[in-house]
Amino acid sequence: MAESITYRRVYEEAAPGDGTRVLVDRVWPRGLRKQDAHLDEWLRDVAPSTDLRRWYGHEPDRFAEFRRRYRAELRDAEHQAAAEHLRGLAGDGRRLTLLTATKDVDHSQAAVLTQWLAGEDQG
């Protein structure tokens, strides 16, 4: 399943191989019109909480702790339904592309979710 899940910036042009395109940000990306996003879903409830997002501030030196805290959030009641829905999308064998507005996608919730969905990041 890991090879069927990818992540990238929502501002990049949609590609035929993207499969199901899911925005995993809590807030809508700046300057992007909804019709230009070419999304299948906007799953804002799977995104990190506002408090966690603000604490992290996309600082790479905080990423390990962000990942740990975010994985814990995915298990709480506020995120659980959305997380399970995302697992369902990933588990059907189709290609899944997680989208984020974050500039550093390798240090984003989309990267954490990709590993989590692939079972590589279950700690």
Strand content of the residues, in percent?
Answer: 5-15%
Number of helices, counting only DSSP H or I runs of 4 residues or more: 5
- Give the biggest beta sheet: 4 strands, parallel
Distance between the termini: 19 Å
Strand arrangement across the biggest beta sheet? 1-4-2-3
Mean pLDDT across all amino acids? 91
Low-confidence stretches: none
Name the helicity range. Answer: 25-40%
Order of helices and strands: EEHEHHHEH
Number of structurally distinct domains: 1
Structural write-up:
- The chain has one domain.
- Helix content is 38%, strand content 13%.
- The chain contains five helices and four strands, in the order ββαβαααβα.
- The protein has a four-stranded parallel beta sheet, covered by helices on one side.
- The longest helix has 15 residues.
- The mean pLDDT is 91.
- Pfam families: DUF488-N3i.
Short description:
This protein is an alpha/beta fold and 123 residues long.
Task: Give the helix/strand layout.
Blueprint: E1 5-9, E2 20-23, H1 34-37, E3 41-42, H2 50-56, H3 63-74, H4 77-91, E4 96-100, H5 109-117
Parallel strand pairs: 1-4, 2-3, 2-4
InterPro entries: YeaO-like
Pfam families: DUF488-N3i
